[in-house]
Fold:
Amino acid sequence: MANGNTNTERVATGISGLDLMLTGGIPATNQVLVAGGPGAGKTMLCFEVLYHNAKQGIPSLFVTLEEDPQDVLKNVKSAFTDFTDIDELVEKKALKVTSSFVPVGSIGSDQLELISAFQKIVSSIEGSINEMHAKCVAIDSLSLLKLVSTEGDALTYRRALLGLMASLRKLNVTALLTIEMKSLERKDIEFSQEFFIFDGILVMYQSESQEKRTLNLEVVKMRRTGHSLSFAPYEITSKGFRVFTVEQDSY
Structure:
């Protein structure tokens, strides 16, 4: 366990093994990058964190940049069949899934067009947060913004991320932001420079062993708290994520 402040105000994830790895949860207002390959469960993990917080009366907002909100709800209901009160939480406005979508084909490679597109996305996210007074937010996924930037200016992408993070901090929210990783295995992971502007980095790995896929989770970085230094196997069940950590209950 890395040293850190265990008295920090926290936002519990509601996933017992993950909260144990974080000595109680994510430090409030941290901006956390959730990275992994296809099928690792990034979207599902973020949704479950929002779901548990919504059940505790904390307004929680899921922003999709790529999918239709109804498709997101359909997918999580299919995966988490024991979460029978999702519609009730949505109806009570404790939980909301919305989109902030700009078609990639409509954005040119000109820097001014990129900046304008990013500003529209950030403005839309700010509006949704203010509308429901959200305190816990997930944004899925930053991969779209990175894809757009490869057609233009990588520096614009970095500035856009910094602007988005500044906006989230100004709004006093705790945020999870997903991004796609090129590699599925830890040994092949290359951390992009922009990863380190976030307060936390949570990586979800996949590996093949004896014709069996294994899933592991790692807290690479988390400001303002101690955290586990171990890899933790996990599985996705109808009851949500199960994270198997070797850490002892120390909080």
